[in-house]
Amino acid sequence: MGLRILKTFIILILLSSSALSENQCYYKTETITENGNVVSVKEIKVCEETVPIGGNSLWQKLAYTTEGQKMFWDTVIFIFTLSQ
Fold first, then answer.
1. Which of these, 55, 59, 66, 64, lies nearest to 22 by C-alpha position?
2. Residue 36 pLDDT level (bands cut at 50, 70, 90)
């Protein structure tokens, strides 16, 4: 019984991890040199934003809104309490 709950929990974590990795930023550094001397250094912050496409489906409401995430986790907790 405990192993089944653990497997279910791991699957839920793996499914929800895609929502956490959406908006990623990194820095691109450019160094300008003249005659072996550093003239200037530019750091550019580049962010990649993910925008969900396809309307307002139930999955998008659950995954991308605070109310949907709270409702989802409340349902998971309720199901776990019923299974014990």
1. 64
2. confident
- What's the total number of domains in the chain? 1
Residue 44, beta-bridge partner list: 28
Q: Do residues 42 and 30 lie in contact, with contact meaning Cβ atoms separated by under 8 Å?
A: yes
Taking residues 38-64, report their average pLDDT.
Answer: 76
Q: Could you tell me where the DSSP H helices lie in 21-65?
A: 58-64
Whether 74 maps to a domain, the answer reads yes
In a domain? residue 6: no
In this predicted structure, the answer to whether residue 20 has a pLDDT above a threshold of 60 is no
- How buried is residue 51: exposed, middle or buried, by Cβ count under 10 Å (0-12/13-18/19+)? exposed
Range of the domain at 47: 22-83
